[in-house]
């Protein structure tokens, strides 16, 4: 897979993102929406006191979004990136890690699975479970008790060059 850095739309400032928090006995759900590209990303955090814990990330986007990614640490650098994109009638997901401003490489310290996905004539969606490595990482962790945590996301209108392979870089 190869990302094109030019069409990347990093949206890391809270003022650019509409976020909603919801709580239940099972945990918290945070939903991020970008009305400009019609991208919705939801993050479900279980009711726990500290990392590590599994994360459930849901992506929903029109086909004009070639890929979308979610940064659990608030930015692309030095935090797990959960990236998903449509491929035929299903969605591929992978985790990535970046140490500099260049395309991120596969992040091997995670256990990731696509629980369900769909692609139709206009949209794609996926429910992705990260069982290990996305809520805590070298140098950081998600605090499940912090309602003001910073997350980040990015998207592109360009699809990966090898959309069927979540691990191939180019």
Automatic annotation (TrEMBL):
Cleaved signal peptide residues: 1-19
Keywords: Signal
UniProt keyword Signal present: yes
Domain Cellobiose dehydrogenase-like cytochrome: 38-165
SUPFAM superfamilies named among the record's database cross-references: CBD9-like
InterPro entries hit by this protein: Cellobiose_DH-like_cyt (IPR015920)
Entry keyword annotation includes Transferase: no
PANTHER family on file: CELLOBIOSE DEHYDROGENASE CYTOCHROME DOMAIN-CONTAINING PROTEIN (PTHR47797:SF5), DEHYDROGENASE, PUTATIVE (AFU_ORTHOLOGUE AFUA_8G05805)-RELATED (PTHR47797)
Protein name, per record: Cellobiose dehydrogenase-like cytochrome domain-containing protein
Organism: Coniochaeta hoffmannii
């Amino acid at each position: 897979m190869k990302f094109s850095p030019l069409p990347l739309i990093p949206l890391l400032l809270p003022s650019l993102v509409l976020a909603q928090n919801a709580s239940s006995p099972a945990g918290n759900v945070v939903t991020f929406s970008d009305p400009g590209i019609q991208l919705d990303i939801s993050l479900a955090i279980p009711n726990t006191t500290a990392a590590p814990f599994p994360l459930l990330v849901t992506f929903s986007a029109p086909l004009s979004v070639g890929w979308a990614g979610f940064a659990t640490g608030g930015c692309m650098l030095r935090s797990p990136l959960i990236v998903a994109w449509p491929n035929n009638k299903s969605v591929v997901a992978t985790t990535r890690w970046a140490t500099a401003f260049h395309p991120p490489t596969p992040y091997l310290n995670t256990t990731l699975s696509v629980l369900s996905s769909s692609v139709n004539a206009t949209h794609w969606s996926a429910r992705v479970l990260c069982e290990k490595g996305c809520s805590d990482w070298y140098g950081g962790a998600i605090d499940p008790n912090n309602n003001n945590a910073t997350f980040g996301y990015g998207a592109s209108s360009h699809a990966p060059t090898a959309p069927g392979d979540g691990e191939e870089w180019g």
